[in-house]
Automatic annotation (TrEMBL):
Cellular compartment(s): Nucleus
Biased composition (Gly residues): 581-592
Alphabetical UniProt keywords: DNA damage, DNA repair, Metal-binding, Nucleus, Transferase, Zinc, Zinc-finger
Protein name stated in the entry: DNA polymerase eta
Native source species: Naematelia encephala
Matching InterPro entries: DNA/RNA_pol_sf (IPR043502), DNA_pol_Y-fam_lit_finger_sf (IPR036775), DNA_pol_Y-fam_little_finger (IPR017961), DNA_polymerase_eta (IPR052230), Rev_trsase/Diguanyl_cyclase (IPR043128), Rubredoxin_Fe_BS (IPR018527), UBZ3 (IPR041298), UmuC (IPR001126)
Length: 616
DNA sequence: CTGGTGAGC
DNA sequence: GGCTCACCAG
């Protein structure tokens, strides 16, 4: 039974020797590879920086981003004046009289486009975070372009994890070409240990968190450190590129796993990065506040901290695994591991959104159906434009359900949902029809004069890319058949009789003009392949270097007027959209060891579908 | 399908 | 505090 006591071990994880297999075998590229190199990156005071750049302000102007009377972001120049997020705007202005206060964009009474206005009124306006989502996508596009080989996980609107392992190994082999082949006389072939690692020049890697008693003492350099250094150099280049192209500064952490990368990205801010080597992990974690660790900032973390009277990670290290699991469940092994710097969770390629919420705290309270309908219209209008926008980047994107939530006073909010049938004619009105139905159900129990809502929210959930076949026939006819009929007619046999031809459902390409954002997003992809494009010209057409598809002008009449170029661009956009959605090189697909709360062991489906299948 | 938790700006 | 997002339990 003794072998069950420790954390799980695998061949790849054996001891502390790095072998040629770790470096060269694709099969060894799992979460257990000791050379694994993960970065976490977040934009410094994101919303405030977005606004400062949008306004074209100099970098040293103190600015806060406001939402009604509260502050949601404080840029670093403003922080010098002691301004915090929880200050009121008046307090902030007292601390810094020349502070630039910028309110977030808003929709004015249900207008179809959000904008920046001189005056904003919470009674008539609805906050829009769309401008920030767009910036977020631009940044992700740069990550994707500069880190084409590793997975990228969008963690929030301004944070991402990057698996730098493949790129770091490439660079390592570039610097040490002799590692690329196993020596003839290596005793164990691929499983032979690498030669001793030479000293490292960390000068381009940013901050390196010091290990215990390291000052001047002899320190053993490892190949794991080399991988981190290569990753850190890559990350520094990525950050530099974000700065050059978008003028945003960001902070990053580079470590062997996600949890540590996330923690050390916050070590030096702003505009800085920190490397956390294995040998420095315990020194780094020991004095850290236990509840600063991701997923331990809430009730669970509090419960554990209280149980063991622990403040720092160091305080928790004496708690035996068995005891922890006895009190907090089998799953709490991830806590045991993470305070030791161990985290085997994967960087899951995900940049597509799974839900869209438009929420409004209404002032004054909504007391009549008429007031409710007004706000429903505003919320539906926002969802309409957001889904439209998302579909330009992710064609075929469609929500499974529409959800209405509402809250009365301090009661917990209630929600109701309804399937959201596909239509080719998405409109605010279409969304509203379903939203109203939910509203009627939800407000049914409220007696006249009893209604007093202070929050109303509308959300799309189960956002997925529909393939043509999945776009139900009943959905296709939605605009022609009464809505009541749609809800009843779910089965194919109920579809209108005598519709022999499969309807031509919306194609992947809308053929619409590109927005500046799309053009921007497409740029990286097309320029990257442009040299290849030149190399294989096809008379009267173009062969995609990525998939081999032959693109010819669909309309001969328009052929001379740039139609081919447009279709080529569209095709490349499509590839880009696919790559953004995580269709890159497949994941490593190794099993998980419960390193995260409730992590499930899942078998990965094959191919591109894998990224769109609902979790089962 | 509904509610709750956790995180972040 | 307002507005998001993801994930999970029952």
């Amino acid at each position: 039974m003794a072998f069950l006591a420790g954390p799980p071990r695998r061949l790849e994880d054996s001891g502390n020797t790095v072998t040629y297999r770790h470096l060269l075998s694709p099969q060894a590229m799992t979460v257990f590879n000791p050379l694994r190199t993960i970065a976490h990156c977040d934009i410094d005071a994101a919303y405030a920086q977005f606004e400062s750049v949008r306004l074209g302000l100099p970098d040293d102007i103190p600015l806060i981003c406001a939402q009604w009377q509260s502050i949601i972001a404080v840029n670093y120049p403003a922080r010098k004046y002691g301004i915090k997020r929880f200050n009121t705007i008046d307090e902030a202005k007292k601390l810094c009289p020349h502070l630039y206060v910028q309110h977030v964009a808003t929709y004015r009474n249900g207008e179809s486009e959000a904008g920046y206005w001189g005056e904003v009124d919470p009674q008539t306006h609805k906050v829009s975070l769309d401008p920030y989502r767009r910036e977020s996508l631009k940044i992700l596009a740069i990550f994707k372009e500069l880190v084409p080989k590793g997975e990228i996980e969008k963690a929030s609107i301004d944070e991402a994890f990057l698996d730098l392992t493949p790129m770091a190994i490439d660079r390592l082999l570039l610097v040490h070409p002799y590692l690329a082949s196993v020596p003839e006389d290596a005793p164990d072939g691929l499983d032979s240990a690498l030669p001793p690692a030479p000293p490292i020049d960390w000068s381009k890697a940013g901050n390196v968190f010091p290990a215990d008693g390291e000052e001047g003492a002899r320190e053993v350099t490892t190949w794991e450190d080399w991988a981190l250094c290569m990753g850190a150099e890559i990350m520094a280049e990525v950050r530099e590129e974000v700065w050059k192209r978008l003028h945003y500064t960001c902070s990053a952490g580079i470590a062997h796993n996600k949890a540590m990368a996330k923690l050390c990205s916050a070590w030096k801010k702003p505009n800085n990065q920190t490397v956390l080597r294995m040998s420095a992990t315990s020194a780094f974690l020991r004095d850290m506040d236990f509840t600063d660790i991701r997923f331990l900032g809430g009730k669970l973390g509090q419960a554990i901290a209280t149980e063991y009277n622990a403040q720092t990670v160091g305080d928790m290290l004496t708690v035996p695994l068995e005891e922890l699991q006895a009190k907090f469940g089998e799953e709490s092994i991830w806590v045991y591991n993470i305070i030791r710097g161990i985290d085997h969770t994967e960087v899951t390629a995900r940049v597509a959104t799974k839900s869209m919420l438009a929420s409004k705290n209404v002032r004054p309270n909504v007391k009549t159906p008429e007031q409710g309908h007004h706000w429903l219209g505003v919320l539906a209008g926002e969802l309409n434009v957001r889904l439209r926008d998302a579909r330009e980047i992710s064609p075929g994107l469609w929500p499974k359900t529409l959800v209405l939530s509402h809250r009365t006073g301090i009661e917990p909010s209630r929600s109701r949902q309804i399937p959201f049938p596909f239509t080719r004619n998405l409109s605010t009105e279409y969304i509203l029809k379903f939203a109203r139905r939910l509203w009627d159900e939800a407000t049914q129990p409220m007696n006249k004069g009893n209604m007093k809502l202070n929050n109303i929210a509308l959300a799309f959930t189960g956002l997925e890319k529909l393939e043509e076949g999945q776009q139900g026939i009943e959905g296709f006819f939605a605009s022609k058949v009464s809505l009541d009929a749609i809800n009843i007619k779910r089965s194919r046999s109920n579809s209108p009789a005598g519709s022999p031809k499969k309807p031509r459902l919306p194609t992947l390409h809308t053929g619409k003009r590109k927005t500046p954002l799309e053009a921007f997003l497409a740029k990286g992809e097309s320029s990257a392949s442009s040299s290849t494009v030149q190399a294989n010209p096809v008379p009267n057409g173009w062969t995609c270097p990525k998939c081999g598809a032959l693109i010819t002008p669909s309309d001969p009449v328009e052929a001379r007027s740039g139609s081919l170029a447009a279709e080529k661009q569209e095709h490349e956009d499509w590839h880009f959209a696919m790559s953004l959605q995580g269709g890159g090189t497949g994941g490593s697909g190794s099993g998980e060891q419960g390193a995260r709360p409730k992590a499930k062991v899942k078998k990965k489906p094959q191919g591109i579908k894998a990224f769109f299948t609902p979790k089962g």
